[in-house]
Design a protein that fits this description.
The chain contains three helices and two strands, in the order αββαα. The chain is extended and about 55 Å long. The chain is mainly α and about 90 residues long. It has one domain. Strands 1-2 form a two-stranded antiparallel ribbon. Bound molecules: zinc ion. The site of zinc ion has 8 residues, from helix 2.
Length: about 90
């Protein structure tokens, strides 16, 4: 059984999860997939969480985007109709 006080607060949890990706932190940003140091730009600010950058470098994000897209195609979702950029 857990002792009282062992639980992490929400803030601690958030810091652990996002601390390494905060926009104005000191030190290097390391991609969580390829583990390489990368330099985020304005375009890499997390749109859902504007105080942080994405955890993945732009190359890994593109790769995962393509994988998701292929997965959805495999599953028969009408992805191209939903995200049609041709017009
Ligand atoms: Zn990467």
């Amino acid at each position: 059984m857990k002792e009282y006080g062992q639980h992490k607060t929400k803030a601690e949890h958030e810091a652990e999860k996002w601390g390494a990706h905060l926009v104005d932190k000191e030190g290097d940003y390391i991609c969580s997939v390829c583990k390489k140091v990368w330099i985020p730009t304005v375009d890499d600010v997390n749109r859902k969480r504007p105080s942080t950058y994405y955890k993945l470098c732009s190359a890994c994000r593109l790769k995962s985007y393509i994988c998701r897209r292929m997965y959805k195609k495999d599953k028969g979702n009408n992805y191209d109709a939903l995200y049609d950029t041709s017009n």
